[in-house]
Specification:
Number of strands: 0
Structural class: mainly alpha
Order of helices and strands: HHHHHHHHHHHHHHHHHHH
Strand content: under 5%
Number of helices: 19
Radius of gyration: 22 Å
Length: 428
Amino acid sequence: MPANCRRWKCAASCCLNPHTTLMSESPSRGKIPALEGLRGYLALWVVVTHLFQFSGHPLLGLPVISLLTSGHHAVNVFMILSGFVIALLIHQRPEPYGAYIRRRFLRIYPVLFFGVLLGVVVHPMRGELLANWWPAFFDQDTLFYFTQCWQAFDSNIIAYAICDFTMTNGIVPNFVLPYVAVAFNGVAWSLSLEFQFYLLAPWLCAIFQPLREHLVKVCLGVFAVMALRNFVFPASNGLTWSSHGAFLPFNIEWFVIGILSYHLRNYLLEARNQQLININLLPVTLVISLLLTRSRADELLGTGFEWVIGDALPLMIWIYALCYMIDCDAGRTGLLNKLAKTALESPAALFIGSISYSIYLLHNPVIIFVEWAVVRHLDIHTWQTCFLVTSAISLPLILGLATLSYRHIELPFIRSIKKAPRPALTTA
């Protein structure tokens, strides 16, 4: 084996080996309730965004509407959360790389397969909506984009379906198969991205493990990837390499933030560092963020949400969640912490969180089916009415289907994963 291969294999084994862990063990093992609740809110945010989108709402620039239709921020928070959870999993539950990948694959693929299958089934329905329903509601730019996507998928269904079912829709360049990232099921690209991260996560965690000594180098490395990715993976024929950033180099920073957050949480909770956080972090963080945005309050009242916070929103949401977790681990309570606990750890929030993965993957086909089967036959003339009727019918169906999917698809595989013996970790 070449020396460089041995070096990387040793690094990954070191990351997965509990006897070589440099960080103190995290105080929480298994599921973290606050993150479960957060997943539920994020999934619902994406659903609401697509309900607005498929109802043809105009770009009004109103703050509330702009916020509700910014579901891409929720996806970015999902990426940070994934980086955090996978880092925790890798450091606390060490196992060989093959066993780790098998567990990750079995966790995400069954529902993904079902979601893509539903997307293929509703593909003809989407075509009918494009021809006979959506032109009355969509603006020309949106209608053109949706039509271009549908025609591309319809012209080569087998190739697009193969990419979706094999989770390569995020890797295949956009100029090879246009719009491949969003083929059939518009959110499946993020699962391709997620699995790309899973493949590299043990090595990323091995690199970041001694981050106290190499934090500056780590940050410079991430910034270098962000700066060079458009040169290494350029656009061609007017199309970007990666639609929606479905290729890992175009969104790796969010996962890295999650990994670094795992190490930061452990560092702050070590006994020798307790004096660094001898206050409730959540209220302090909230006050600071409000002060930073206060000077632009007039813009918040008169312009879109993006103008005020923009791409910082996912990071702000994650910082709030991280501070809440650290406060809970340190045994600190306060009014804001209690409110956060109620919001994130209530039975309803935890239930939605438990089925959030199925909600996320199955909602698009349900919305399209509802508009095709019911809404287009009603006497509806405004996007507001379309949104309300579509939401009233779709949301119960989405929650019901997601519950069934969780019980009959997710849970059996989760149980089989837990029952499977964990192979002993061997060193090279």
